[in-house]
């Protein structure tokens, strides 16, 4: 066998082989050289610095996106305006329902009474309330005439007021008088004067007329229910406590192994600060 003939190559074949060998050598060099490149490690201090820069950028972005509040009349608050201010859908609906009766809000306290917003939220947005000048003048005039109101000793007992007494008040109709008497019967007697505001369809001006002449002097004998022992059915008999809210209170009590402070009920959906003030009249913790 003649092996020599197998190694006899012309110049073109030799050049091709040499070029192929050169390419392979370059590929091997690149592979081993680049494979040795390691990612440079970052120290903890550098990581912390980068994180602070990111947090700073986020804070700047949040500050830019913060909604600026301008003076506004709460009587013309829209759904979107209420949402941006932090009101819940329920609170916004109460405001819109109140305004649909052609009733007006003339003060921050009116706004809280109607909507039931928390004290903290009211403190944030109330400085931006802007009412017409005639409202301010009326409030000023009212404060100047407060001295003309009857003293506590000269007022009659709200829990003994009669139909004739109420119907004789200014701006009071027979139907308005029935609303007061029916509600008093429903709750077993008034525990405080402000419960007059809870009477549906009774206007604020009518409440003022009642409070000028009457006040709670003899409170009904009501045993406060122990919130840690009462059942849902009995809870639902309390003003502003629906059966769904009653079940939520029971569930919260079970999960937390009891309720120490009645203010905890604010964590339950459907209970506002306004409602809690009324609920507290009928509940206790006995702790």
UniProtKB/TrEMBL annotation:
GO terms of molecular function: DNA binding
Keywords: DNA-binding, Membrane, Transmembrane, Transmembrane helix
SUPFAM superfamilies registered for this protein in UniProt: RuvA domain 2-like
Keyword Transmembrane tagged: yes
A Pfam short name: HHH_3
TM segment ranges: 16-34
InterPro entries given in the database record: Endo/Exo/Phosphatase_dom_1 (IPR051675), RuvA_2-like (IPR010994)
Record-given protein name: DNA uptake protein ComE-like DNA-binding protein
Organism, scientific name: Leeuwenhoekiella aequorea
């Amino acid at each position: 066998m003649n092996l020599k003939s197998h190694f006899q190559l012309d110049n073109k074949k030799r050049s091709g082989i040499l070029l192929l060998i050169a390419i392979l050598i370059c590929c091997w060099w690149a592979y081993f050289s680049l494979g040795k490149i390691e990612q440079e490690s970052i120290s903890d201090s550098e990581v912390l610095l980068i994180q602070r820069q990111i947090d700073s950028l986020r804070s700047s972005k949040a500050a830019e996106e913060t909604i600026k509040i301008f003076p506004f009349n709460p009587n013309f608050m829209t759904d979107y305006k209420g949402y941006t201010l932090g009101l819940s859908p329920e609170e916004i609906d109460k405001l819109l329902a109140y305004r649909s009766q052609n009733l007006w809000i003339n003060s921050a306290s009116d706004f809280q009474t109607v909507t039931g917003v928390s004290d903290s939220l009211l403190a944030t947005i109330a400085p931006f309330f802007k009412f017409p000048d005639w409202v301010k003048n009326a409030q000023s005039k009212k404060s100047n005439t407060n001295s003309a109101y009857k003293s506590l000793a000269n007022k009659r007992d709200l829990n003994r007021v009669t139909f004739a007494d109420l119907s004789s008040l200014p701006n009071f109709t027979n139907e308005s008088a029935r609303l007061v008497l029916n509600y008093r019967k429903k709750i077993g007697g008034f525990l405080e004067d402000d419960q007059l505001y809870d009477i549906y369809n009774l206007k604020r001006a009518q409440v003022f007329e009642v409070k000028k002449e009457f006040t709670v002097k003899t409170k009904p004998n009501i045993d406060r229910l122990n919130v840690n022992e009462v059942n849902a059915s009995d809870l639902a008999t309390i003003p502003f406590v629906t059966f769904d809210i009653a079940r939520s209170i029971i569930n919260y009590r079970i999960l937390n192994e009891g309720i120490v402070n009645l203010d905890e009920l604010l964590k339950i959906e459907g209970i506002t600060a306004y409602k809690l003030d009324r609920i507290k009249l009928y509940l206790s913790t006995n702790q």
